[in-house]
Write a structure and sequence with these properties.
CATH superfamily of the largest domain: Tetratricopeptide repeat domain
Structural class: mainly alpha
Order of helices and strands: HHHHHHHHHHHHH
Protein name: Transcriptional regulator
Distance between the termini: 42 Å
CATH topology of the largest domain: Serine Threonine Protein Phosphatase 5, Tetratricopeptide repeat
CATH architecture of the largest domain: Alpha Horseshoe
Organism: Streptomyces syringium
């Protein structure tokens, strides 16, 4: 199961959502054979991501909700691993709902994840990096997905970046801040946020398509070269205009 899960994650990072879906389905099949609720919930999380990534966002929300229902009765402060998997699954469902432009469902799932996070200190249990700050991080990302850059920047003030357990998540935070700042026309500050993301996880900035596209957009806006460090960043990410 873990091998399929990792394979699906790597395929998603490399933009092969269709193959990731296949791997995630196999992870789910293996998880069901274990009859361990936490395993099914973890597989539901990667399946939600893969299904949503190929464009079936509402179906992805359904996968997340059903997976969460299977584990909900076991969610308690005394079961931190269960809380982590449950909360991470809710956050993935909220992301899928926002991608489907379902603001109400995204908001409801975020609230449920927030309540779950109250049972758990910041951690990386089951490689979820779930905790209160991770919920705040998702509030930023989901506000952006729903088209509200101003709200995303306001939510970003509630994130304690250094408390995020995984460098990749810290890079995601700064990337989301950069996207929000770019949407607000603040090119120099958006570049500074991308440099902060690069410091946390260089490959997340230099190889991810969404980040490289953002760098390209910033270059187009800064044709006068007012932000010299943007050219250096673009060179490292091999982005040209």
């Amino acid at each position: 199961m873990d091998a399929y899960h990792v394979a699906a994650s790597l395929l998603l990072k490399n933009g092969d959502a269709a193959s990731a879906w296949v791997a995630a389905e196999r992870a789910m099949a293996a998880a069901r054979r274990t009859e361990i609720p936490e395993a099914v919930a973890a597989a539901s999380r990667i399946l939600t991501h893969a299904v949503s990534a190929v464009g079936h966002r509402r179906q992805g929300v359904g996968v997340a909700v059903r997976g969460a229902e299977q584990i909900a009765d076991a969610v308690a402060r005394s079961n931190p691993d269960t809380v982590a998997v449950f909360g991470a699954l809710l956050l993935r469902g909220a992301w899928a709902a926002s991608a489907a432009n379902d603001r109400d469902t995204a908001t409801a799932l975020l609230k449920d994840a927030g309540r779950a996070a109250e049972l758990l200190e910041e951690s990386n249990r089951h490689w979820t990096a779930f905790g209160p700050n991770n919920v705040s991080l998702h509030r930023v990302s989901i506000a952006l997905t729903l088209g509200d850059a101003g709200k995303a920047l306001a939510e970003a003030r509630n994130v304690n970046v250094e408390a995020l357990a995984v460098a990749e998540r810290r890079a995601v935070f700064w990337t989301d801040v950069a996207r929000a700042l770019h949407a607000c026309g603040r090119t120099e500050k958006a570049t500074a946020a991308l440099l902060a993301a690069e410091k946390q996880a260089p490959q997340e900035v230099r190889s991810r398509t969404v980040v490289r596209e953002l760098i390209g957009d910033l270059l187009m806006r800064d044709r006068g070269g007012r932000v010299p460090v943007l050219r250096s960043l673009a060179s490292r990410a091999q982005v040209t205009v």
